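Reviewers of the previous submission asked for a worked example of the structure-prediction workflow described in the proposal, so we include one complete record here. The input consisted solely of the amino acid sequence. No template or homolog information was supplied to the procedure at any stage.
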Amino acid sequence: MTDKIPKANLFELILRLEKESGKALQVDCTVQQGTFLFESRTDNRRTTCEKVTTGSTFTVNAGSYGVIRAYPSPENQTTAPKGSVKVKTSAGQEATYPFPWEQPPASKLGNIDECKTQEVLYPDVMIVGSGPLGATYARKIITDKPAAKVMMVEMGAQESVVVGEHKKNSVAYQRDIDSFVHVIKGALSTLSVPMKGDSKSHPWPWAGGNHNSAWVQRGQNPDQNQYTNLGASAATRVVGGMATHWTCATPRQLKGLERSELFTDKEWEDLYKECEGYLGTSRNEFEGSIRHQLVKNTLKKSFTEMFPGTGREILSLPLAAKRDPQNPSFVIWAASNTILGNTVEKLHLYPNHQCTKLLTHGNEVQLATIKNLSLTHGRLYVCAKKNVVCGGAVLTPQILYNSGFRCEGTSGPVLPKLGKYMTEQPMAFCQVILHEELVKPLDPEHPTFPEWVTPELKAKIVEHRKKHPEDPLPFPLDDAEPQITTPVHPDWPWHTQIHRDAFSYGDVAPNMDSRLVVDLRWFGMVEPEEDNKVTFSDKYCDQFNMPQPTFNYVLQEAARERCHRMMEDMIRVSLKLGRYIPGSEPQFMEPGLALHVCGTTRAGTSRDDSCVDKDSKVWGVNNLWLGGNGVVPGMNASNPTLTSMCFAVRGANKLISEL
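From that input alone, the workflow returned the following structure tokens.
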């Protein structure tokens, strides 16, 4: 890519005081040109940021640190900053640091001060996260503003040749879907691991002696109550995010029950159509499957008897997928690469780069702190005109918390509902082996050969019999799996997926013919409750040295009652198809396993009920947008990605209008 992002040197003076030192530092500043920022952080991880002018004076107390950063102003990126900083200790020591410098000055105050030269980039837009929501923002901005320099930061690696491609776009996985389970397991990193009782991890659990030396490993969470945890909630850190292994199910939310009223019906219709176009959503890609039609027609007939006159439907599941025209047995599953399309050629992608902090002063993000995870101490800064964080429903508020955003306080940015009103879909699951009486009639010679079998499907069965007369099943070896749904309905307020797909669970034994296996997954909904939330620790860090998330998630009575009705419904439907596989009998799955956490940075009408407005712009910050399922504000049972993309399109349109 020849159109590079402008960059310059940033000069950094770091002042650290140990808690036990009892000292304090006074920092006096003189600024002649460029931008100077002072960041301070206390031992409770609260970050504050202030713009520095001549005469600015700051204090750094014991147990905290302060950083002066000087860099070229965004309006004059080629002119180095100029000024000086005088530091005076409570013991009477003094040191002066002129900006800029050719080489970082050596320490002048012992182990208190350190000078570094870093790099600062000046894109028009910085996007954090490379999943479907980050890709949606990137596509919209690059399409509408071709000259804009758009930088995308992703803490994971690029594991595919095509940027952000679905990993299931492999012949090996499509011929053996159960082998893909291990890919999903390997991609997911659990977010909060409770520690049983008061025990802590110890490097020598077999050793006796002083147990006060026990320690907590990163990723383990002593603050997590195991009974209020979303124990299966996880993140995928890779270019493409969870879209590298998602199911690609893209249902629309139901008006009046799931769908937010922030947009009009016309706006929702336009947004859904645009996003479905980006993904290539279709209900037709599995219509030519014998198994798909068998399940679909069996349930249509059963529903007429089970739910007469209710209008409850059996439909093909809307999927972001298409058949390869050169090889119709191969499905191309959509992911971030599908959304980006040709705009990826103009995107500046930074894999293995972690956004840890947004330095905000007044109503603007001034700088973003980026770690280069490929280097031991690699770091750069980004001074973007506009910033978009799409790190996921947990990792996005984590970045904000680490940046000093709090639910209350008098210093730093305040978002009273940050992390609150969290929802996650309760989930029921089972697997069945198709009834013999459903499969046997598919023999063309059978006296009750089904009327729904089209000539094309019959020809497939006949051809398979000729090629494989020893096969007791009528399904060709490349016959596609079923992909069926019963949409969310006021009387049945849950989303269903009746199919055969790979998740982090539900793989079948190699000696079982998976052509007979059908998975049933029912996704429920919960009302948004302010006390259902994710909070972040000032004491413990996760494995990426960010504040450890802790979940508080409790189902209220109405949600519990719905869950039991949902389970009863799944059992009734499943018994029409087959008998349960041992170990996969009807069961509620561990909270968080749906991986559909929403609401943690919800959209709304004011700072009092939300974190962002209906354009996904953070309240009180002029150049910061959020994207992801966390923005979706209400209760929902449908897969949320398509709806989250609608919010992203709306947000991108607003951003573009202000760029």
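DSSP finds eleven helices and 33 strands in the chain. We consider this example representative of the routine output the project will generate in years two and three.
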